[in-house]
Design a protein that fits this description.
single chain, mainly beta, eight-stranded antiparallel barrel, 46% strand
Length: 192
Amino acid sequence: MLSLLALSSVARAEAAPDEGVYQFRTEEDPATPPDPSVCAAAPFVANVKLGASVYIPLHQVWDGKVVFAGRMRAGTATACVRLTDFTFPPGQQVPFYARFNLPEGPFTASGTCTLVSNDVPQSGLVLAGCALKLVEAPPGYVGGTISSTSVFNPFHLPGFATGSYYTLYAYRQGHALAWSGGNHPSVDDEQE
């Protein structure tokens, strides 16, 4: 039987001190309009601009299931998208650029979102997954990635919100120096 201490260490992100891992949720919010300066900096002309609030969800320790989506706002976000086919065909990749204003500072990312479906759980709701590269980060960070599982409700279907669950993984300066010190266990050490 696992002790409470063992459970908490299993659930904790195993990030090294020079890495930052954040998980958060965004939801489109009329009280948080998109920042036009963010979309003006995108490497494409955006025809969809979304403003959102950022929330921190709570997870069950033993299986990672979200048990509370969070209602206390922890930041804001602006997303910029270039859509060309408003039938939202599964498999289509769309350019995506976003800034997340988090407690640690602003993180800006650019990449693509792949449309997964346009009819689950009902026709007109769009599910997507995004893979983004950090292009700007708070001082001390040298780069990283942001990924998402996203819901887009372009037809304002009742009962659904436009929003995403994100994982942000960023490296701080000095990562290479930390690994060159030789104080991390090798793969062979971990298998023993």
